[in-house]
């Protein structure tokens, strides 16, 4: 598959970056690259047939933690899981139904990304009839909005929800990594406070 080939090229590139970062004793950045490789490997493992009907679907997951919301989308084309994307909204306005509706409304446009024949959703979005009519106008065909309760489609929703939950996990890792690194910078440079901005100057030329 084309996507799988691109992922493998990216893994190879990240492995080289890990080697370079390690030689420069930049172990924090090397750890970030390692986590990215693990995520890509997981994506490649999930590039499997999920439907015998050669269906085209986008599967949405939605997870809230306090005020923040994470939304993940899994792409299924010709019955094969081919990729994913996620969105992190730190303090969005509205409840989960309204937020899901906003993401769908902004994500699909005639000039960027047309919707597939079916959207699998974890909950019914706000103004679902208006959304569905808009997407059908884009594709000049039927676009189903399905909120599954059981079976294979519900399994796909669970996977998308897990991807959305992983966004919070990764953000927490990055926050902890920055906390450790910033404290180290303060100590080594004898700073009074943790810097809010770090600027770099290339003096190699």
Mean pLDDT: 82
- In N-to-C order, the SSE pattern is HHEEEHEHEH
Beta fraction of the residues?
15-25%
Shape verdict: elongated
Gyration radius over CA: 21 Å
Largest beta sheet: what is the strand line-up?
Answer: 3-2-1-4-5
Largest sheet: 5 strands, mixed
Q: How many helix segments?
A: 5
Unreliable stretches (pLDDT < 50, length at least 5) are 1-5
How helical, in percent, are the residues?
40-55%
Number of strands: 5
Structural class: alpha/beta
Span between termini: 42 Å
SSE layout:
Elements: H1 2-23, H2 27-45, E1 57-65, E2 68-77, E3 80-89, H3 96-107, E4 118-120, H4 128-139, E5 144-146, H5 151-189
Parallel strand pairs: 1-4, 4-5
Antiparallel strand pairs: 1-2, 2-3
Helix pairs in contact: 1-2
Write a structural description:
The chain has 205 residues and is an alpha/beta fold. The protein is 51% helix and 17% strand. It has 5 helices and 5 strands; from the N terminus they run H-H-E-E-E-H-E-H-E-H. A 5-stranded mixed sheet has the order 3-2-1-4-5. Strand 1 (57-65) and strand 2 (68-77) form a beta hairpin. The longest helix has 39 residues, at 151-189. The N and C termini lie far apart (42 Å).
Quick overview of this protein structure:
The protein has helices at residues 2-23, 27-45, 96-107, 128-139, 151-189, and strands at residues 57-65, 68-77, 80-89, 118-120, 144-146.
